[in-house]
Amino acid sequence: MLPRLFFGNSRPRAVPKTTNVTFRLRYAPSPTGYLHIGGARTALFNWAYARRMGGVFVLRVEDTDRARSTDEYEAAILDGMRWLGIDWDEGPGVGGPFEPYRQTERFDRYAAVRERLIDEGHAYRCFCSAERLTEVRDAQRAAGDTPRYDRACRGIDAAEARRRVEAGEPAVVRFRVPEGGETVIPDLVSGDVTFSNTEVDDWIMARPDGSPTYNFCVVCDDSDMQITHVLRGEEHLTNTPKQVLLFRALGLEPPLYAHLPLMLGTDKKKLSKRTGDTSLQDYRAKGYPPEAVVNFLCLQGWSLDDKTTIFSLADLVANFEPTGVSRGGAIFDPEKFLWMAGEYLHAEDIESLAERCAPFVIEAGQMTADELSERGAWFRAAIESERERIRLYSELPARLAYLFVPDDAVVYEEKAEKNARKQEERVTVLRAFLDWAAPQIEGLDPSDTARVATLRDATRDWVKENDIKFPTLFQPLRCALTGASGGADLFDSIALLGAQHTKRRIEAGITRLA
Question: Which of 17, 242, 269, 273 is catalytic?
Answer without folding.
Answer: 273
